[in-house]
Each structure stands twice: as C-alpha cells, then as structure tokens.
Amino acid sequence: MGDIWDILPGLGDKLAAHVVLSASAIGLAILIALPMAVWASRSPLVSRLALSLASLVQTIPALALLALFFPLLLSLRAVFGEGLPTLGFLPALLALTLYALLPILRNAVTAQANLDPGVLEAADGVGMTRWQKLTLVEAPLSAPFIMAGIRTASVWTIGAATLATTIGQPSLGDPIFAGLQTQNWALVLAGCLASAGLALAADNLLWVIEVGLARRSRLQTFGGMAVVAIGITAALWAQGSGNDERRIVIASKQFSEQYILAQLIGGRLEAAGYAVEYRDGLGSAVVHSAVASSSIDISVDYTGTIWTNYLGRKDNPGREAMYETIRDWEWRENGVRVLGRLGFENAYAFAMRGERARELRVASLADLAAVAPNLTVGGDPEFFERPEWIAVRDAYGLRFARSRNFAPTFMYNALQSGEADVISAYTSDGRIAADKLVVLEDPEGALPSYDAMIMLSPRIAADEGVIAALTPLVGAIPVEAMREANLAVDREDEAKLTPKQAAAELAEKAGF
Amino acid sequence: MTSRDPLLRFEGAARAYGDVLAVAGVTCSIAAGSFVALVGASGSGKSTLLKMVNTLVEPTAGRVLFGGEDVASLHPAHLRRRVGYVFQGIGLFPHMSVAENIAIGPRLTGEKLPDKRIAELLELVELEPAMGSRMPDELSGGQRQRVGVARALAGEPELLLMDEPFGALDPLTRDALGTKVRELHDTLGLTTVMVTHDMAEALLLADRVLVMDAGALVADESPRALLAGAGGEIAQGLVSVPRQQAERLAALEGVGETRR
C-alpha cells in the first residue's frame, strides 16, 4: 500500500474540484437556509413545512438524488435552452445543496426557538426594529448553534461529494470509483484518505469558528473564517489555472473495460494534439443521454444495450442488422455519430463454475431452467432491471431461489465463494478464462449481441481530426485482446496493471 | 393633580385572548410626574394593561394615548425608545457587556452614548463605573436589575414602565432597589407606572395606587386613603395582608418584651 503516497500528490486537481463543489453547495445552502429559518421563526407553518421537506430530502439516498438531477435538468432545457448543463457541476451542486439544507435549517430554527424570551422582550422593549432585533440579538445569540449545523452539513457534503463522480463532476470520488472497479485498493484508499482528511480539516476549522462565536472572540472567529476563505480561494485558483478551452470529454461506465478503452481513446486523441478529460465511473443510464446532449463527447457503448434500452426492441434481427439500425437511428434521432465497431462483443452471458455446471449437468440456459429454483443468481446492480434479463427469464422460464446484486468485479468472487451459483458474466471478461468458467449456451437466441461501438457526440460528430485519430480503432480489437487487457486490470497479483498501462499494451497488440 | 394634560390616558382599553378578557375596558389618566402603582392578584390584567402602553400588547378595543397621541399611530420602535421599560425577566443581552447593554437604546438611533454618561448611569443605580466592562452573567440578580434600570434610563425617557421589576430579587435587595427607584423618580422628575402584586411595596413607593381585578380597575386611591379604609372590598383585601403581617410582628415583639 506504499503506492498511496505516490497517488496522493496527484489528486490535487480532484481535491480542488472537491473543495470548490463542497464549498459552493454549503454556501448556497446557507444562503437558502438562513432566510428560511428567519421566516420559519415567524411562522410555525413555514417551520414545519421547511423542516419536513428538508428531512424528506435526507431520506433519498445521495446517489439517487444526484442521478435524479440529470433528467430534471434535461427537462428544464425546454425552459432555459440547450445551454443548461445537465451533467457535472450544476446537478452536483444542486443535489448537494439540498442535502446540506437540513442540518443548517434545523439548527437555525432550534436556536431561534430556544432564545431566552426575556431577552427577546427586552429587545422589543428597548425599541429595536425587526431588523435590529434580528441582527443585534437573534443572529449573534444563534450564531454558535447555526455554526454547529454548518459543521455537520460540511462533513456530510464533503462525504457525499465523492458521489458526484457518477454524474460526471470531478471529485475525490474519481479515484475511489476507479479503484473500486479495477480493484486498485491503493487508489480507493487514497481517495478515501483525501476526502476524510478534507472533512476532518473542515470540521476542525469550523469548530474553531463555532467556539470563537460562542466565546465572542473576534480574533478566533475571523481568524478561522480567513483560513476557510484562503482554502477555498486556493482551490478556485488551482481550478481556474487549468486550461479554459473546452476539452474532449471521454466517458467511462463503472467497469474495467470502459476505463481501459477510455484511456486508449484518450491516448490517441492526445497524440493527435487534443486536450482530453476523463469522466470515469458514470452511471450506465446517464452515459447515453450525456453523449446525445454533448455533455460528454465520446463513449463506448454496446449494440445490445442501445437496442433494448433506447430503441425499446425485443426482437433479434442478427448482429449486422442490429448495428446498422442503431447507427442510423443514432444519427437521425440524436445527431450522434457511431464511428464504428471496435471488433469485439461484450455480451451478457450466464456463467458457472465448471465443476458446479458438471455436477448439475447444466450446459445451456434450457438446462439451467430445470435446476434454477435451487440456485442463487448474481447480477450487476442494474442487471435484474434490464430488458435482457426479462427476455432471457421469459424465454427459458428461469425462476431462481434468490437473486443478488454485486458490483461487476465482485460477481466473480461471489461465484468462487459460492455466494452465487450462476452470474451474469460479460463475454469480454478475462476472468471467464482465468477462472475456468463455463458460459451457458443460449439456444433460443434470447440475448442480443453486444458489439462495442465508439459514439461521438453531436458536438464533435463532424470533427475530422477526432475521426481521423479514432477510425484506426474500428475493427482493431479482437475479443481475446480485450479479455487479456481486462484481466490484467482485474487481477490481484503482482501482474496487475492500471487501466492506462493496459490501454498501452492493448494499443501495442493492436499494432499502433 | 396638576392642570396639565395627562401624560398617559387609557380610553376603554381592552384586550381579549380568544374568549378570555384579560383587560376589560379600562379608562383612566396618569399625570406627568406621578408614581403610580398598578396592583392586583395574578391574572388580574395589570401586566397586560401596562404592556399596552409600549405596544408589546395591542388593545383589541379602546386606545391608549401617550402625550395626547394614540400609541397605535406611532412607530413601535420610536415609541419604545421614549419609554423606559424594566421587567421581572430583566432581559440583559448576554452577548453584550454591561456598558453596551446600557448604551443600546441610544445606539439604535445611531447615537453613541459617551463613557462618561454610562459611568453616570451606573452611579445612579449605585454600581461601580468599572462594572461597565463586565458581562451580564458575571453579575448577581440585584446588580443585573440595577443595570436594567440604568438601561431604561439611558435614553432619558418621558415615561418609566416597570413590570414586577423586583419580583425575582431577595427582600433586602428588593427593598434597597425600590427605595432607589423612588429616589430616582423624584430627582429625575420621571413619570413612573409600576406593576406589582405586593401591596406593601405599592403603598410605600407610589403616590397613587390603582387596583385591578378580573381585568377591571376596582380602586384608584392614594396610599393614605387606602390605609384609611377607602377603595372597596378587593383593595382592602390586598391592604389587609401587610397590615395583618405588621400587627402580628408588633404582637410578637410585645410578647418578647413581657417575657423579658
């Protein structure tokens, strides 16, 4: 784990982005919560309403809240125009702000409710106007409690901001998600350490301000505030000093193959002189709309995914027909250019341990249906919601005793440890061969094909430089090469490679 | 009573809370320079009546005139700056020093009270000028209420309203502070209305005692007249308490003497 110390210094960009995002969210939450608290102190109805609303927001998992802003902002484009960003900073800011509201609002309202009534009567008695009462009495007396709320909000927000990665906002979540998917624990730990360190630093700094307010020590209060301001300014400056011109943004979903291909594509574009930015670990559902809306410029998607999820088709016209239909549909409906197929398929396939398959005499999905009621099936988090699963289930009448969700990388471990008897594997996955797994046949052809395709957003659909740099990749990656690269990233021994290293090897093998 | 217009006048002032009538239409005038005690049992409406003057409570019927003007027509903040207010809760601002507390009224109008004046005010209520830099939580209850009185006097008010000002103090402090306030009333030429449930305090400090019962004014007499038996049954009931206490104390003393 000595690598952590090599990784940490490289996280400066992510740290700066994390600080700016968290600070903006907390700042916005303060701007909203404090006037609301004042209003709530004048009206019990507003108080109840505001607090229940803020509590309700808290019950939504942060990950879901972040993801929900994507469709919301997309629909708001009808009002605000196409320039409204749907991914990245804006949705992350809005979701985190909502999340930060509750502790600030609750502390502010409680502080106001607990003010000594004698002091409030005196404030009126000496002839204070409402504003004077607020600024001279209520605010200074509530300040330490409000500060405590801001502290809680800050720790929550800094923690939750790591999830902003999934909607394409760079943060300290980037190394965490990338590390989780590629089982690079040093990367995960580095990300966790950095965000925990940031949360602790913020907590302590705000505590200094809180105590300063409670003791009415101006030196301590303003000293603490100055340090906070310096930290945020430094983060802003670090971010602002980056290149302002729009880079080419390459997406990757949350599994190793996507990280490797993103690096492969990015490497070629950089060699062609483009500035490149990676948005790693995006939710699969977000990627397609993100490319269509040019929030992301390049992604690698799979024919079967588009076929069932976006065209809503259930039939299987064969590999070629499917690809051509998708290519035309993307161009016509979304202005997305499907540059071509990489040359391999990453299809869903059901896999079992060889021994177990022999023991149960299962070679195909039809055989599986007979023994399924005694078995546990494992799938990636979205698998059991996908039309592919429903198609297979209905075609073979599959009924399992239990179905469990695993992160893609952990599915294989689950199979080995017996926590799952059969899993939804991917055909390009190196672990199928490495773990000596049996891929069950699909005699009914219920699973569509999953050719990997390079997708270009409308923004760069006609960019000749990009097209020239990436066209050589079309048809250049056979499934064996992809499996090998995937295994190199997923394995846990000393031969483990980073996605970037694996991409370099893959490029070499493909003859670049 | 002088021939001058009354400084304060209640005209059918009433206040209802739902179905309950806390003050049931009070009419009376208070002349400038007088020290009036407003006495009654708990819940008789005396505090509510007092708070109608500085509009901490708004009348549901009738009106209150201050210097000839309806208080409802004045800006509440401006009105309250002309009226000193001392109450049982004291309500010193805990985040401000004694000096800042005293100077708060003038500060609200953008005026800075000079240190010399703060020292003077502290001396008026028999506190050391050095006390100015202390925080309220460093003071005893009696010292705090002295600061409360100084704060009420800082704006040179035309009227001093006191709502059970000494209710939470020990008897010694209470007696000393009561005497002090009466002395300040005389030397500064104030007009004072003091709410109290203690008839002895009212009789000893005020020139005029108003007795309230169930929201109505039931007696309006000088202390001397009350002691002479005027004011009716309720007023006499209240007067009888300190009188009987005094008689029992005198009797106790008498018993002691015969045994000696």
UniProtKB/TrEMBL annotation, chain A:
Name the chain's protein.
ABC transporter permease protein
Which Gene Ontology terms cover its molecular function? Answer: transmembrane transporter activity
Give me the segments passing through the membrane.
15-37, 49-74, 86-105, 141-165, 185-207, 219-238
| PANTHER family, per the entry | GLYCINE BETAINE/L-PROLINE TRANSPORT SYSTEM PERMEASE PROTEIN PROW, OSMOPROTECTANT IMPORT PERMEASE PROTEIN OSMW
What is the organism of origin for this protein? Erythrobacter dokdonensis DSW-74
Sequence similarity: In the N-terminal section; belongs to the binding-protein-dependent transport system permease family. Belongs to the binding-protein-dependent transport system permease family.
Keywords, in A-Z order:
Membrane, Transmembrane, Transmembrane helix, Transport
Q: How does it sit in the membrane?
A: Multi-pass membrane protein
Q: Which SUPFAM superfamilies match?
A: MetI-like, Periplasmic binding protein-like II
Location in the cell reads: Cell membrane
**GO terms for biological process, alphabetical:** glycine betaine transport
InterPro entries from the entry?
ABC_Gly_betaine_transp_sub-bd (IPR007210), ABC_transp_perm/SBD (IPR051204), MetI-like (IPR000515), MetI-like_sf (IPR035906)
Q: Name one GO cellular component term.
A: ATP-binding cassette (ABC) transporter complex
Q: Name one Pfam family in it.
A: OpuAC
Residues in domain ABC transmembrane type-1? 15-206
Q: Does the keyword Cytoplasm apply?
A: no
TrEMBL record, chain B:
Keyword Chloroplast assigned to the entry: answer is no
GO molecular function (one)? ATP binding
Residue ranges of the TM segments:
20-41
Q: Which domain of life is it from?
A: Bacteria
Q: Name one GO biological process term.
A: quaternary ammonium group transport
Q: Which residues form a coiled coil?
A: none
Keyword annotations for this protein, in alphabetical order, are:
ATP-binding, Membrane, Nucleotide-binding, Transmembrane, Transmembrane helix, Transport
Q: Name one Pfam family in it.
A: ABC_tran
According to the entry, every stretch annotated as the ABC transporter domain falls at: 8-239
Any idea what this protein is called? Answer: ABC transporter ATP-binding protein
The species is Erythrobacter dokdonensis DSW-74
From the broadest rank down, the organism's phylogenetic lineage runs:
Bacteria, Pseudomonadati, Pseudomonadota, Alphaproteobacteria, Sphingomonadales
